[in-house]
Design goal:
7-stranded parallel beta sheet; 16% strand; two-stranded parallel ribbon; single chain; alpha/beta; 11 helices; globular; 340 residues
Length: 340
């Protein structure tokens, strides 16, 4: 069923995915209210630069706020009357969750409950929220499918994302809320996060410093270009999740439900070896990387690979940007942004 929305809330609007999504919606004439706490997990100037691009639009409004502040969040919902909410605000990063677990509980669990409560009390239409490919954890059945059980996370970050899916299902069951969770697979591209491999590798190679290659390069990631992610999100926003008439408690399908609840993978459906990824960066830069080969890090998985059959079936879309094309666009942006 089509969902015509005019007034969207995007949490994490200064973030990588949030700023791209906000831009796309503003270009389509949707009114966008952004929430971001502008935390310093990475360079705040990059977040500010992303916001500068959005502030050119009259229909963009930013609240510098924290999702943990429930009273403030309620005021925003009460005033704005949203008909679609996309929750992208989260404490990101697998590694950081090992050192700072409480940051993940506050942002990804407390913050998400507050979003659910506000959506419920202020009838905010369709809630779309970011989950992550990391929920697949110890699963080795490839490609990863939303119909698979995901009860063995290997990082607290993954556990908080899985808990978001469970909480959303509970609210859908109890209050008839329409909830769609999106499991993103290694998103990259212009305006990306400085803690991600592409950013780190590019910076190190340009500075003639060695790059850290974990698990001795024997890793595969389903790298997904930002424009493909945004296309998937926008299509899912416009599609109200419907109950699966074939769902049964005897053999429960984790990706659907008897209520208005769905999960989708958004991934390139094409895992790339880490060394192939490095080669693509070297080729785009015209420079060779000096490599330090290291063991697998705690909380990391060896391979990710998205089954996107349900996304193709329901949203009519399949990501297809090649890493050569995507990395080329990122390097172009990087050189322009850092005036290289």
């Amino acid at each position: 069923m089509e969902h015509k929305f005019k007034n969207a809330l995007i949490t994490g609007a200064a973030g990588f995915i949030g700023s791209h999504l906000s831009m796309r919606l503003l270009e389509q004439g949707v009114k966008v209210t952004g929430i971001d706490n502008m935390n310093d997990y990475y360079d705040v100037n990059l977040k500010k630069a992303r916001l500068e691009r959005l502030k050119k639009y009259d229909d963009f409004l930013l609240h510098e706020a924290d999702l943990q502040d429930y009273e403030n969040l309620k005021k925003i919902f009460e005033k704005e009357k949203f008909d679609c909410v996309v929750n992208l605000a989260a404490q990101a990063g697998v590694r950081y969750s090992i050192e700072n677990p409480m940051a993940y509980v506050d942002s990804n669990i407390v913050g998400f409950v507050n979003i659910l409560e506000c959506c419920r009390h202020y009838d905010a239409g369709h809630l779309v929220y970011a989950s992550s490919s990391s929920v697949y954890g110890a699963n080795t059945n490839l490609p990863f499918s939303v119909n698979d059980n995901v009860d063995h996370p290997v990082s607290l970050y993954a556990a908080t994302k899985k808990s978001n899916e469970l909480m959303a299902h509970t609210y859908s069951h109890l209050y008839g809320m329409l909830c769609t969770g999106l499991r993103f697979f290694t998103v990259y591209g212009p305006w990306g996060r400085p803690d991600m491999a592409l950013f780190l590798f590019t910076k190190a190679i340009l500075e003639k410093k060695p790059i850290q290659v974990f698990n001795h390069g024997k890793m595969k990631r389903d790298f997904t270009y930002i424009d493909d992610i945004i296309e998937g999100v926008v299509r899912v926003m416009a599609r109200v999740p419907e109950a699966n008439p074939d769902w049964t408690g005897d053999a429960p399908d984790p990706g659907t439900s008897y209520t208005g609840y769905r999960l989708y993978n958004i991934g390139n459906n094409n895992p790339v070896e880490l060394m192939e990824f490095v080669t693509a960066i070297e080729n785009a830069l015209g420079m060779k990387a000096e490599k330090n080969f290291l063991d697998l890090q705690p909380g990391d998985v060896v391979q990710t690979y998205a089954n996107v059959d349900s996304l193709v079936r329901d949203a009519g879309f399949k990501p297809a940007t090649t890493i050569e094309e995507g990395i080329g666009k990122f390097i172009e942006w990087y050189k322009q942004y850092y005036k290289i």
